[in-house]
Amino acid sequence: MRRIVIVGCPPVQILDVTGPLEVFSNAPGYEVQLGSLANEHSLQTSRSISLSGALPISTLDGAIDTLIIAGGPGSEAGVYDDAFVSWVAEAATRSRRVASICTGAFLLGAAGLLDGKQAVTHWRFCDQLAREFPKAEVRPEPIFLKSGSVYTSAGITAGIDLCLALVEEDHGHHIALDVARFMVMFLVRPGGQAQYSHMLLRQSISSKPLHELQVWMLENLREDLTVEKLADRLGMSARQFTRVCLRETRMNPGQFVDRMRVEAAQQAIDSSAMGMKEIADTSGFQSADSMRRTFLRVLGVSAAAYASRFKRSPTSSDE
To answer: Is 231 in contact with 240 (CB distance < 8 Å)?
Structure first.
């Protein structure tokens, strides 16, 4: 059994604890333990709810497979409990991997575990994390990051994404997908910050080369993404790539590119103040009209109609 220890500096954000708890409890081969700082058997959350069944960290000795540090108000004040930070640093030495959920990254930083590492936290706290721990390379964009044996995740629900990825790392794609389906979750949300991301295609893709191609595509949406260029990235012929694309995504390459661009535009609509023409350009469309037609083809609504559902006020030129 893989031993998972979840602990945080109270009060913790309740979903930072219960999200990972549900993921690992619904996957095979894990024993999950909650830790508390004091000699109590409960973990206080920021919602005036105590989670029972916790063990004092002084009793959590021995090897740990995955040490998870939950975030919350207790991690965000810039002042850290020295005894707890020392315990985190010590426990990390007997853990196969260490992960933080949301602002739990600050406790990893205080313990010196982010020195020389890439890290992410909730988008509201990324600047603060960079200021407090200049030896860390803080990246505000990803949903979660792996840097050596240290994993960090963005805001709240991103901890669930991270833990699903850890299950996939341990047990493979199909088991992780089963857990995600049971929880009615997407298996992977790549791209921008968790609460804004619409990049959902990877949930059904098991091919590592295609995963890597998607990352490159997201960074190069403004290029002319022809079948030949994408195939060449994978060292395949255009015909072979088309077969792989159809098998993994149930879309031909042209449909795949359209979907990637539409989802990038959705993210920009939801999370930015850019106008439609600028969104079209950054998402790789030749014009706002081209984006409108592609939205209609992929989603059945225009980009402006989609934006209106998210409280935007598009101008007539967006239609």
So the answer is: yes
Six-digit token string for 90: 């010590």
Q: How far apart are the C-alpha atoms of 111 and 259, rounded to whole Å? A: 42
pTM over 0.70: no
Q: pLDDT by residue (tens digit) across 28-58?
A: 999 999 999 988 899 999 999 999 999 999 9
Rounded CA separation 220/196 (Å) = 19
Per-residue model confidence as pLDDT tens digits over 276-286: 999 999 999 99
| Position 191 in a domain | no
Residues 152 and 203 in one domain: no
Cα separation, 78 vs 143, in Å, equals 23
Long-range contacts of 276-282 (CB under 8 A, 24+ apart): 276/303, 276/304, 276/307, 276/314, 276/315, 276/317, 276/318, 277/317, 277/318, 279/303, 281/222, 282/221, 282/222
- 102 burial (CB, 10 Å; 0-12 / 13-18 / 19+) is buried
Give the domain extent around 151: 2-177
What is the DSSP pairing of strand 150-153 with strand 144-147? antiparallel
Any domain includes 186: no
Task: Look at residues 266, 274, 279 and name the one whose alpha carbon lies nearest to residue 307.
Answer: 266
The CATH number of the domain holding residue 134 is 3.40.50.880
